[in-house]
Design goal:
This protein has about 375 residues and is of the alpha/beta class. Helices cover about 30% and strands about 25% of the residues.
């Protein structure tokens, strides 16, 4: 956002909100790069002017507050300055020292915070700052701060990745016609949107039937975006060694399988540099809690689930989804023998239907994108 843009919104926001907005915008620069850490930006202000700024670029690198402090060439300017940060400064020794201590030692006398840190291991910075005589204000643009770190919040509070349902379908909800044919349902513009989703999340996940029927690469094919980790749910290790997915970046492929699946095939896949992740099962399905934990252990913080029908059904039935991006093509066919987007038993009462909130729609080429959060 340009300086002119900030001036334009100055008259509808107070100064604390204005500079917090800047901190949030800085934090967004590292989207999908800080996992398992949160997105954090920091702005240092003195006499109404920004004198320093920074953001957390990657796990293990300096935090936003330290980046901002180090960006100020004349350290004398830090005395009596204000720092704006969208998340409570950390208060523990992890990969880096506590940011609360860095702020105290810098001479900064006021700290404005968007939201408290929900990570009990890292929290406590507010109390430490106050104990050092620093003026602390909490809750400025709190809703925006929480929205920014919705992935981190889900990872921390519920010990699971932020799961996103993504599906491209016909108007009647079919993701593939008879025989499983699904390419291509939506337009090229919609497919580019899907690739951007892959490039801005930790991983993309599909079930084994999608690999067998569609033989996808699951890569992001837009320059400038990171390649997502590629996850395949394959309980019985049916994946063909000749599958296209193995032709690129095998070390970022994660095959989720049962402990009882073919050990010889596991050895072959590991020799190909593929990650084999054994997961607990129950009633013929992966245990949802163990699946979530195993994905987090592999630093998969946000995960785009692209299907197919049974996989979406599994995630819906177990209430694992957080958000949905549903793409509808302006096409319709008969549905007998086709594959519906949600492959699980229909309820007898519409009151049992899964509800979405904060919904919105927009056109992408000839297609319609429906976006919403699971209630």
């Amino acid at each position: 956002m340009t300086n002119i843009a900030y001036l334009c919104i100055f008259f509808v926001m107070n100064k604390d909100e204005l500079f917090m907005k800047k901190a949030i915008e800085l934090a967004k620069k590292a989207k999908n790069k800080t996992c398992p850490n949160p997105l954090v930006g920091a702005v240092i202000v003195k006499e109404g002017k920004i004198i320093g700024q920074g953001y957390h670029k990657k796990a293990g690198l300096p935090h936003a507050e330290v980046e901002a402090i180090n960006s100020v060439k004349d350290r004398n300017q830090l005395k009596d300055a204000t720092i704006y940060v969208n998340l409570e400064p950390c208060n523990h020794y992890g990969r880096t020292p506590p940011c609360s201590l860095a702020i105290i030692n810098s001479g900064i006398k006021r700290v404005v915070i968007g939201m408290r840190d929900i990570n009990k291991k890292a929290s406590g910075g507010i109390e430490r700052l106050k104990g050092a005589g620093i003026d602390v204000k909490v809750g400025v643009l709190e809703d925006e701060a929480k929205k920014l770190n919705e992935v981190f919040i889900e990872n921390t509070l519920n010990r699971k990745p932020f799961f996103i349902m993504k599906a491209a379908m016909l108007l009647n909800g079919c993701i593939a016609v008879k025989g499983g044919v699904s390419q291509w349902i939506t337009s090229e513009k919609a497919r580019r949107f899907s690739h951007r989703l892959r490039g801005t999340n930790s991983a993309v996940l599909v079930g084994i039937n999608t690999i067998i029927m569609d033989d996808p690469l699951l890569t992001c094919r837009i320059k400038g975006y990171r390649q997502p980790k590629r996850v395949v749910l394959d309980m019985n290790l049916k994946i063909p060694i000749s599958a296209k997915i193995f032709s690129e970046y095998p070390n970022n492929i994660y095959i989720i399988t049962s402990k009882n699946s073919d050990d010889a095939k596991k050895r072959i896949l590991r020799a190909m540099d593929v990650n084999i992740v054994e997961c607990d099962t129950e009633n013929g399905e992966f245990n949802p809690a163990d699946l979530s934990e195993k994905l987090l252990e592999n630093e998969i913080c946000s995960c785009i689930v692209e299907g197919g029908s049974r996989t979406h059904g599994y995630f819906l039935k177990n209430k694992l989804y957080n958000k949905a991006y549903l793409l509808y093509a302006p096409k319709i066919t008969g549905s007998y023998g086709a594959f519906n987007v949600a492959g699980f038993d229909a309820p007898k009462d519409l009151n049992e239907a899964i509800k979405l909130i904060d919904t919105k729609c927009k056109k992408i080429g000839d297609d319609i994108l429906f976006e919403g959060y699971f209630k």
